[in-house]
Amino acid sequence: xxxxxxxxxxxxxxxxxxxxxxxxxxxxxxxxxxxxxxxxxxxxxxxxxxxxxxxxxxxxxxxxxxxxxxxxxxxxxxxxxxxxxxxxxxxxxxxxxxxxxxxxxxxxxxxxxxxxxxxxxxxxxxxxxxxxxxxxxxxxxxxxxxxxxxxxxxxxxxxxxxxxxxxxxxxxxxxxxxxxxxxxxxxxxxxxxxxxxxxxxxxxxxxxxxxxxxxxxxxxxxxxxxxx
Length: 228
Hints:
By secondary structure, this protein is mainly α. It is about 65% helix and about 0% strand. It contains 11 helices and no strands. The chain has helices at about 10-20, 25-40, 45-60, 65-80, 85-100, 105-120, 125-135, 145-160, 165-170, 180-185, 205-225. Helix 5 (about 85-100) packs parallel to helix 7 (about 125-135). The longest helix has 24 residues, at about 205-225. It is globular.
């Protein structure tokens, strides 16, 4: 009853606090109650609060198949309307799943399509690094996302990101306390990254993005047909 009375925006803090102080059955019970509350409160959660909550619940292994499906269906409806500043929260959700080993191909293809739609050259430093790490971590031979991973690596090379940058992104925008990573990733408060002026010799990049997007869409349609 008490969990149902907790303001929605406080749920991520409650879940994090529970993971710090409770263990065993008491922790499992409280996280289950929080998950139940979340399912009825999704319309009230901002992208930031939703990402905070998923980050915490996934770290506590508290996202069951039903809740995962609820999150993914909700994101599929709402992400197309998210503005550019909110997209790092989508990348953070994908990263949270990757850290916990949650394979959700529908969410991954949703994120890949949205990233291509925005143009990878305009993603935040942390967004690009975390997507690269997450998609590599969750890679499966038959997931249909190999071409998207290649596009990510092209942009990673363009920005000369090291393996330390890619690996450190899994800790979030704070870079796990590494001051260099934090400085690189901390772009909040700045204007959205503008698309760079590319040399005339690189028109193939946008063409590749378009073809990759078609492959992702075709794979999604095939998966939906199989599930139906």
